User: Which sequence fits this backbone?
């Protein structure tokens, strides 16, 4: 009897799997080059898709390119469509080219492009999502100073707009907190012209820690690996970026985040709330998400909140001041913002 039940169970599972394949997978995510366990853009975006799909009884799948090229990313977009995708989510700046090509090739498929825009702009079947990184950077700089750090560092990857906004927001936040406390703050500031870890980045960070820098905002792809290594050897602290990087090391005190999972759910909610087509007011546009949309912020989970004195309640009060417009963070990237109590040492 038990054997018969086991056989019937296997057939039931196979039948369900066959039904899913026959119907196809309605939601699809194509990873940029990594996998959905990268603890960064792919994973967070995937988690947002899964949460929405399971809440709304939708089928979903993800597809991973075999190499880092627009051609292989397009292969996976085509595979997703062949398997039934009605919505395709593309996370990260590497999708600028393939997002544009895919939207033209598949005009009846809806695309959500995360943290970049298609080359040449959005087609009518595409919504892109960018972020107000300056607000996330502001939170990180403010929190660090309020927690007692006065010797800060910012190491950015390439000097692209998103990284610049993070850095200049960080400076503004540090300066705002320094004014509130009536203290002076020093910020060393450098773009390393790379998104990959290197010995040069580690050497630079190690030198800063030796000179007294207490915490460095590591802002750009894999460069955090070099900075964390230097911090662990030099008894320093690090601020992560884009996603909650607390899992990387105990010396990461917080992360300036883009809420990728929430953003994916937000966009899918707009789409499915309008019968599976983009509402007229956002079709073919780029959304620029910030605090008002819960698009950026600091992680507040107990395991991620590693400040000594700055509290979650103080952070939430600050958050509301930016939501209400009482505090406005300058999003300009042409020049370093003027400061009152923070001295910025821009290095080459």
Assistant:
């Amino acid at each position: 009897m038990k054997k018969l039940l086991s056989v019937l169970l296997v057939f039931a599972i196979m039948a369900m799997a066959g039904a899913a394949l026959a119907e196809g997978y309605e939601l699809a995510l194509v990873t940029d080059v990594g996998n959905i366990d990268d603890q960064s853009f792919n994973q967070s975006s995937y988690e947002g898709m899964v949460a929405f799909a399971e809440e709304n009884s939708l089928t979903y799948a993800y597809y991973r390119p075999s190499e880092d090229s627009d051609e292989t990313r397009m292969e996976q977009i085509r595979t997703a469509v062949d398997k039934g995708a009605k919505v395709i989510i593309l996370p990260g700046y590497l999708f600028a080219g393939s997002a544009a090509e895919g939207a033209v090739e598949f005009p009846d498929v809806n695309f959500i492009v995360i943290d970049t825009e298609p080359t040449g702009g959005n087609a009518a079947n595409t919504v892109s999502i960018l972020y107000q990184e300056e607000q996330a950077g502001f939170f990180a700089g403010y929190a660090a100073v309020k927690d007692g750090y006065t010797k800060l560092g910012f190491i950015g990857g390439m000097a692209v707009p998103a990284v610049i906004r993070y850095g200049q927001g960080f400076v503004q936040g540090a300066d705002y907190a320094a004014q509130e406390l009536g203290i002076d703050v020093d910020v060393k500031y450098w773009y390393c012209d790379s998104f990959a870890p290197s010995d040069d980045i580690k050497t630079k960070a190690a030198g800063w820690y030796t000179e007294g820098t207490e915490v460095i905002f590591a802002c750009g792809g894999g460069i955090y690996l070099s900075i964390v290594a230097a911090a662990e050897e030099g008894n320093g602290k690090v601020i992560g970026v884009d996603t909650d990087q607390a899992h990387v090391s105990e010396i990461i005190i917080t992360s300036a985040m883009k809420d990728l999972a929430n953003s994916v759910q937000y966009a899918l909610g707009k789409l499915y709330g309008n019968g599976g087509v983009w509402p007229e007011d956002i079709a073919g546009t780029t959304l620029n998400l910030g605090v008002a949309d819960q698009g950026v912020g600091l992680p507040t989970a107990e395991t991620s909140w590693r400040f000594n004195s700055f509290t979650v309640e103080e952070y939430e009060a600050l958050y509301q001041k930016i939501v209400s417009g009482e505090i406005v963070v300058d999003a300009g990237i042409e020049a370093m913002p003027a400061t009152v109590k923070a001295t910025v040492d821009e290095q080459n």
The domain at 133-257+297-347 is CATH 3.40.50.2300 (Rossmann fold). The longest helix spans residues 2-23. Confidence is low (pLDDT under 50) at residues 1-22. The radius of gyration is 22 Å.
